[in-house]
Each structure stands twice: as C-alpha cells, then as structure tokens.
Amino acid sequence: MKQLIRSTILFSQVGLSAWPRRSALGRSLNFCPGEAPSRKILDRLALFGETEAMKQLIRLTMLFCTCAALALTVVAGPEPMPSGKEMKQVAPAPPECDYTWTGFYLGGNAGYGWGNADTDFHPLPNAVTFVNLAPTTLNPDPNGFIGGGQIGYNWQWNKWLVLGAEADFQGSDMEGSKTRGPIIQNDGDVWPFDHSFITAHERTQWFGTVRGRIGFVPFCRLLVYGTGGLAYGNVDYSANTDFGFSIGFEKYQTAFSKTNVGWTVGGGLEYAISHHWSVKAEYLYYDLGDESRTVNANPPLPPFQVRYNWETTANIVRGGLNFKF
Question: What percent of the chain lies above the pLDDT cut of 70?
C-alpha cells in the first residue's frame, strides 16, 4: 500500500508533462529535449511501482474475501445435503374428528328375541314310587317381537375410548308352548288311558336392563362397544301333567307370574349420522334364572306330586335410534 501511495504522488507531480507529446506526424513535441530520457525513466518506475501495488491489492482483496466466506460458513453451519424428500409433495394431515360421544342421550328401539325355556318334569317323591310318570323335559322355547326405549350417558375418555351407562325397558311378545302326549310311564310304557298329556308354557311380558358400556372408536363417528350388567323381567309360567279326562284321573296343574332378576351381556355398533342423532344395532343375551313349583294332584293323591322347573334365558337383536343432547 505504501508503494501505491508513493506512485500516486509521483504521478501527480510529474503530470502529463512526463509523457512524450507527438505531433500529427508522429514526431515528439517535447520542448526540452534534454529532459526526455529522465522523464522516460520516471514513467517506467512509476508504472512498475503501480503494477506491483495493484497486484498486492488484488491479493489482499482475495484473501479478505476468502476469510469472510470461511467465517460465514462457520457461523451459519454447513448447508444440509438434499435428501430427495424435498421434491415429494407432503400429504395434508387428516382432519380431526368433528364429533364427540360425550353427553346424555335417549331413544327408542325395536327387534326380535328368542329364548330357552326348558321345563323339567320331576315325579315325586321319586320316579320309582311314582311309576306312572317318567322324568321328562319339554322345550317351550319362546320367541317374538320386542320394542322399547333407552336412556344413557357416554363419556369419551380420549380419541379411541368411550365409557358409558345405559338403562332400557322393553315390552315383549316372546312366548312359547310345548305339549306331548300320551304320557310315558317310568318303565317306558304308554299310559293306557286316552287324552293324557304333559304341557309347558312360558311368556315374557316385559324386561329391562341396567348396563355399563365400554366402547372403541375405530374411526370418526363409529362406536363399537361391549356391554353388560343387570337384567330383570316379568315372566308367565304354566305347566300341566294330565292323566286323562276320566273321573278320578289326576291333574298336576300350575300357572303363575313372576318378576325375576338376573344378568345380561352383549355388544353392538353405533354410528352418528349427525351431531345429535345416531343409529345402532345391538345384541344381548340375558339370564333371569330358573323358576320352580311343586304341585299336588287334583283331586289330591298323596304322596304323589310333580315338580316343575323352568329355565328363563333369551337372545335379543334390535335396532335403535338415539338423540344426544
């Protein structure tokens, strides 16, 4: 840089007079011929010094730019290498579900039920003594339409899990009867008098349940759930062992109604068709226990009796419509 400054000063002192002037014919126009050689020497020295100074300036400029680039690289960090994913279009995230199962609801339902009402006939005091009646089982399995309503509450624990409770009450037309005749005696022979028979009947008048529910939400608005809890119902029972129409032939007949309590278990699907309405399909199995009666003969004939035992179980399928508040 010092050499560049000296050359600049020297050039300013010498001025344009240091350069040879020529005429239009190409001849030198210097007014002091004796000074020409010295001026030529000064011109060459100035140019040489200026050239070296420019070279050093260029070197310093390149060095400065290199150092600045290295400093910026250290501060900014290395540029990440392209992974190829930049060219792929990023798929938009799926929208969040716009429905929640949390809330109270009520609704109605209708369906069909079929049950097991196996009825056992036990001769008393025992089959050996009561030789005219062999132990027998009839199957008056009831079936029919059902319909009613339900009320409940759901709580959506998280995106996937729903807990709830539900109570329902159903009217029922499930009914079944079975008759067999003539009566078979304990030794396998047929009772010799006409019009003998045994019969059993069972009808469910109404029933209800109080259940807990636990559900899984596989995707938005669909609930798959299991359920179980208490079941209760009013059932009509009847049975008869009739040894014929002749005078003096006994009948062991009974008929009564009983409200029983048992248990139920099942599951279903429910789908929300809007923010307030949902439709469902459900299956339940319930067991209201066994019911027994011991019946004396009419007219009385001690010590002979017949004990009847009815089973009370059923399967139901139903569809429903719920309104959530």
Answer: 70
